[in-house]
Write a structure and sequence with these properties.
300 residues; nine-stranded mixed β-sheet
């Protein structure tokens, strides 16, 4: 049953990719009115058939009191929102950026929004598309308390837990970047470990079952190890191209604080090998094929 009165929110949602579509479905199921926009029209029409309101253009979606966006990277946020004139004359009260962007862009975005009297909340998420569909994302939030207060009821249908990291939006993005760096490192070491045991004739699936049911329980090793063992990289839950972007974001964030991330350079090199092999749109678990190539195994 749709929620009524003050509980009903009028939301704009920008970006209907792998993560955006299940998020919109969760918001619709929670009783929110959601106006959707995407660069390509088919995703808009698909969700309009499920009850969303289609926006004729990006500006229309951005007039809603609360706007959520999940665009690909810094460049997309800058082009579509910061430099697109959307902030100059809009009824939007708070913009919630769900994307993984640089800490530097988060700081700039907060300043640019504040200049127009619009709240800005960084709220990157942890979880793949299937987790979003179940409403079990971990949402990392930072922003001014008033803006976070407006955003929280909209984020709750998406979240298993909402984690708050203070008023500076760049903190939430720094945490997300650090988590993705850990994840990339785990994927790379799992890929190398699988290559090692396979070289001794051990079946990859048995090895993954062992590690995920003993020393390394949880979704990371079980999920990505399973993809590696079965060589299932398409459709991608998270592409190699985006993985490379996030590792570079970690390197950039570390450089801004004069920190070294030696492991990031190793993971970046592996991701570049995958890109060079033509695997940019595969799931980044395809790092297993990079490791297999190094071992002289036949890859696909």
């Amino acid at each position: 049953m749709a929620r009524q009165g003050a509980e009903m929110s009028d939301i704009g949602f920008i970006g209907l990719g792998t993560m955006g579509k299940p998020m919109v479905r969760r918001l619709l199921a929670a009783g929110h009115r959601v106006t959707v926009w995407n660069r390509s029209r088919p995703a808009v029409d698909e969700l309009a058939a499920e009850g969303a309101e289609p926006a004729d253009d990006l500006a229309q979606a951005f007039t809603r009191p609360v706007v959520l966006s999940i665009l690909a990277d810094d460049a997309a946020v800058r082009e579509r929102i910061l430099d697109g004139g959307l902030l100059e004359d809009t009824a939007c009260r708070v913009h919630v950026n769900l994307a993984t962007v640089s800490a530097g862009l988060a700081a700039e975005a907060a300043e640019r929004h504040a200049a127009h009297g619009i709240g800005y909340v960084a709220a990157p998420v942890l979880g793949r598309a299937e987790v979003a569909a179940a409403g079990r994302l971990n949402v990392l939030v930072a922003g001014a308390p008033a803006a976070v207060g407006l955003a929280r009821p909209v984020l709750e249908p998406l979240a298993a837990r909402i984690w708050t990291f203070g008023e500076d939006p760049s903190r939430a993005n720094a945490v997300k970047i650090a988590v993705n760096f850990l994840l990339a490192s785990a994927i790379e070491t799992t890929a190398e470990a699988i290559s090692l045991v396979e070289s001794y004739g051990v079946e990859a699936g048995q090895f993954v079952e062992l590690i995920s049911n003993s020393l390394f329980p949880g979704p990371v090793y079980a999920t990505y190890g399973g993809l590696m063992a079965g060589q299932r990289y398409e459709p991608a839950g998270f592409t190699t191209r985006l993985g490379l972007k996030d590792v570079r974001l970690a390197q950039s964030a570390a450089h801004a604080r004069n920190l070294a991330l030696p492991a990031a350079s190793l993971v970046q090199d592996a991701l570049l090998e995958a890109m060079a092999a033509g695997w940019s749109e595969r799931d980044w678990a395809t790092l297993a094929e990079v490791a297999r190539r190094r071992a002289g195994a036949v890859t696909r």
